[in-house]
Write a structure and sequence with these properties.
Elements: H1 7-27, H2 29-49, H3 53-73, H4 75-95, H5 99-119, H6 121-141, H7 145-159
Helix pairs in contact: 1-2, 2-3, 3-4, 4-5, 4-6, 5-6, 6-7
Length: 161
């Protein structure tokens, strides 16, 4: 919960923060693009907290775009952030009933988390399991129960390790 349980009161400061980080990132992109992505993600979260996923979508998509650029330039530093942002985007699409658009975001998040968990199992195994569960929910929502169950089983196996 934001601002001591008052998410509506946290929306204006989040919007103001995005505006400030936008200005800084425009002037100094190498230095402030990552901060802009964090601020956009926070804004999207505030909209989600308020039950406004449609308004959370644009900040979430922009967050993914920025983190994709950052991960391309510095994969060791930003791939996990990209995976998290992709998964959050998938959740938003799902909340909006747009399962077909949620699917590629969740699949890409799973692929990244698989790589990260292979390299750093203690750090990313739980994230991989969570991402797999989200992917399973999307597959189920698309009427693909067999694939969804297979993915759920993979998530369950990971959590038992």
């Amino acid at each position: 919960m934001s601002e001591l349980g008052r998410p509506a009161e946290a929306l204006a400061p989040a919007q103001e923060a995005v505006a400030i980080w936008r200005e800084l990132a425009a002037a100094y992109p190498d230095r402030y693009r990552a901060d802009l992505a964090i601020s956009l993600a926070n804004l999207g979260y505030r909209f989600s907290e308020l039950g406004r996923p449609a308004e959370a979508l644009a900040p979430a998509q922009e967050t993914v775009a920025i983190r994709r650029e950052l991960a391309a330039a510095h994969p060791d530093r930003y791939r996990a952030d990209l995976a998290r942002s992709l998964s959050n985007l998938g959740v938003l699409f799902s909340e909006l009933g747009r399962q077909a658009e949620a699917l590629p975001a969740e699949q890409e998040a799973v692929a990244i988390y698989r790589e990260l968990a292979a390299a750093y199992p203690d750090r990313y195994r739980a994230d991989l399991a969570t991402s797999l569960r989200r992917l399973a929910a999307v597959l189920a929502g698309l009427g693909r129960p067999t694939e969804a169950e297979d993915v759920r089983r993979q998530a369950s196996q990971i959590t038992q390790l």
